[in-house]
Amino acid sequence: MTSNPEVAQLGRTYFNSPANRYTVALSNPYLTNRLGMTLAYRWTDRMWYEQGITQGDVWLPAWSSVDAQFSYRLPELKTVLKLGGTNLFNTYYAQGYGLARIGAMYYLGLTFDELFK
Length: 117
Prior knowledge:
The protein is mainly beta. The chain has one helix and seven strands.
């Protein structure tokens, strides 16, 4: 079932979800003995957004995003260093009408694992 303006004429469904949404990811945690990588592409179709009593119903445009993460193992410290980002190209999109638009997020992290092998 998808959100549809023709269905909304017959009655309100408030089913705010796109007809199509895809994620394609390539990942290899062991490119080398210490280096790993993940690359993901996400795409969401345009969506008819029923919102009830506020500004009226609207079409939200389709959007896409590219995410990546690199990891580097430090076995002597039982630690993994991670560097990555979501929505790398900082193309703003909204997942609902009136919601904040989402931009890029970049991060650097350390994961400590006492059970590291």
